[in-house]
Design a protein that fits this description.
Helix 3 runs parallel beside helix 4 and helix 7 runs parallel beside helix 8. It is built from nine helices and 14 strands. By secondary structure, it is α/β, with parallel strands linked by helices. The strands form two sheets. Strands 1, 2, 3, 11, 12, 13 and 14 form a seven-stranded mixed beta sheet that branches. The chain has one domain: Metallo-dependent phosphatases (Purple Acid Phosphatase, chain A, domain 2, 4-Layer Sandwich). The N and C termini lie far apart (48 Å). Helix 7 links the parallel strand 6 and strand 7. InterPro entries: Calcineurin-like_PHP, Metallo-depent_PP-like, STPP_CPPED1. This is Serine/threonine protein phosphatase. One of its GO terms (molecular function) is hydrolase activity.
Length: 358
């Protein structure tokens, strides 16, 4: 009986410690790991003045935890602003005009300029006036590689935007991890034009990159698990010459022999977390698994006009075996206070899982 009691106490203690650990601040599972942070669409943080400090808290949390979590890279999945080019906020879908929005998101990211490389992509709300009525974006006016010291250290090349300018709207980066694994990361514009897809295909196919792990970052690509993680086939925006998710898979990703990860945002809903996340895995032409993930949070903090997303971000821990990635979903917004820290983790299977690279 005493042996059974002792076993029960040990088991209870194990689960209690596990629960306590997941209610505290993030830490590495392996001290030799390195971390990538994935930020979902910032637009609802940015369109309301009162929400902007939440996104600033998120980027400052990254800065503060750079050493503790060995954070080496940050990805942001687009829709940096709600309206790219409006003179006045309407007070309903935001109280900030576009210049105020771009200035706010630039200021939030500026704390990382000399700390850690961050890679952005342009979403539909980053084009046109309100949402992709055309391909004019102010992104290049606010995010110049010359200002982004850490990002410039991995920036390898840029492709032309719609106006023919070389900008970060379409760019590729060479990143070598602390485990000496080489990554080629391409950030592609919203619904990329055919010429961008073809140029990207040629870049990934270069002999130089045959041993690199390829990563594609683009805003709109796939749907949530509520919609069976399906690839997007059609959208109703006014921009022309578009490549939707399914076609991007067929023309760029599947034919590749080295692309192994795809990150995107864009989709969302007010019906719970499952409307805002998704994952699928398929083989590319090199018979390598391609891990495709959608992660958005803009409706999780009270809907489309809520607080912007409750501060949720993704922590991707790359283990020293050079294959395993542990994915966790954490909120610095909840984690900042002892009274809310128990809410700072999302532990469902679709928000806390691991994958293996080839």
């Amino acid at each position: 009986m005493r042996k059974l009691t002792l076993t029960l106490l040990i088991t209870f203690s194990f689960f209690l410690n596990k629960i306590y650990a997941q209610s505290g601040q993030p830490k590495l599972e392996n001290e030799a790991s390195w971390t990538m942070i994935v930020l979902p669409d910032p637009q609802t943080y940015i369109k309301f003045e009162q929400n902007q400090p939440i996104f600033s808290l998120m980027t400052r949390w990254i800065k503060r935890n750079k050493e503790k979590l060995n954070i080496e890279l940050v990805l942001c999945q687009g829709d940096l602003v709600e309206q790219n080019n409006i003179p006045v906020g309407d007070g309903v879908n935001g109280d900030q005009n576009s210049n105020q929005q771009w200035s706010a998101v630039r200021e939030a990211f500026s704390v990382l300029d000399t700390i850690v490389p961050y890679i952005l992509c342009a979403g539909n709300h980053d084009y046109g006036s309100k949402s992709a009525e055309n391909r004019y974006s102010q992104l290049n006016s606010y995010f110049s590689p010359n200002q982004m010291e850490s990002t410039s250290s991995i920036l390898t090349g840029m492709m032309p935007n719609f106006s023919g300018e070389q900008t970060l709207e379409n760019a590729y980066y060479e990143f070598v991890s602390p485990h000496n694994v080489k990554y080629l990361i391409a950030s592609l514009e919203f619904n990329p034009r055919d010429t961008i897809v073809k140029q990207s295909e040629a870049i990934f196919a270069r002999e130089k990159y045959k041993d690199y792990k390829g990563v594609v970052l683009t805003h709109s690509y796939m749907k949530s698990m509520t919609n069976d993680n399906a690839l997007i086939e059609k959208e109703g925006y006014k921009v022309k010459d578009v490549t939707h998710g399914k076609k991007l898979w067929e023309t760029l990703i599947a034919p590749s022999k080295n692309i192994e990860m795809v990150f995107c945002g864009h989709i969302g809903g007010t019906g719970g977390f499952t409307e805002n996340v998704g994952y699928r895995k398929e083989k590319n032409a090199g018979q390598k698994d391609v891990h495709q993930m959608v992660f958005n949070a803009q409706a999780d903090g009270g809907g489309w006009h809520g607080n912007g997303g409750d501060g949720w971000l993704r922590i991707l821990e790359f283990l020293p075996d050079k294959q395993t990635i542990i994915i966790k979903t954490f909120s610095p917004f909840f984690g900042i206070s002892p009274s809310t820290i128990e809410k700072s983790w999302r532990n469902e299977s679709y928000d806390s899982f691991s994958i293996k690279l080839n």
